[in-house]
Amino acid sequence: MTEARTKITLPYLFEKVEKGEPITWLTCYDYPTAYLEEQAGIEMILVGDSLGMTMLGYESTLPVKMDDMIRHACAVRRGAPNVFLVGDMPYMSYQPGNELAVLNAGRFMSEAGCDAIKLEGGTAMAPRIRAIVDAGIPAIGHLGLTPQSVAALGGFKLQGKSAALARQIADDAKALENAGAFAILLELVPDRLCKIIKERAQNCIIMSLGSGPHAHGQLLIYHDMFGLFPKFKPKMAKVFGNAGEVILNGLTAYHNEVKSKTFPARENWFGMKDEEYESLQKMLAPKALRAAKG
Length: 294
Ligand code: KIV
Hints:
With 294 residues, the protein is an alpha/beta fold. It has 13 helices and eight strands.
């Protein structure tokens, strides 16, 4: 059943925080899934550069380009006109400088109808956040496990385990908040660090991906929660339904039914009236034959 949703805005999100109601956030990369996520009541959607791995089959997010992101973000916006839509800045679309960052953040807003952008990195990226926010674009920071820096981080693993590294992440969070980020995503950091960062935040929404229950809301990767990414299932992701298995069973059944000639069945095709069929045969018969038949 389709239900009209009210538009989710920044004040709405801060209202949720004020009331202590957790915010729901999911990744999404395509029109039909966006439609379903909006119908389910999901409040925020991230068109993540994880689409490089989940949708395009790259080994990492690094090959993803702005044009890839815009194409997918446009499709998601068409499917979910009312969610709070966040465009994820891909590798090297913002790192080189403030001007490039503002131009690419602006593309998410003007071409795809996004409500905000997200970018990875701590204190070093605070000037990018400041420039984007000064251009009137809401910005979200991303700390902890930041997949664009996976080589430097030494793999997809928990970040901020030691007090010293945790302190660095807490300082980075403050720097991003001071630069104007309205939200920060903490990916794969210990729950207690997430709690500390939330308690220190003054006007900033703290979201968790695998960083425990203390945040203002949760983010999950859609493909992980439905068993749709065959290469691995991160520990932090709960599988809410095994769509991958359902789809694989369906595909195998289709293959088998075509081979055994049980598909298509009579209800799966359309016939033609006898008189139309006979006229057609006459029309298609060779000229000489038609003349002989009169
Ligand atoms: O691209 C993405 O989906 C992300 C998540 C890993 C947070 O940035």
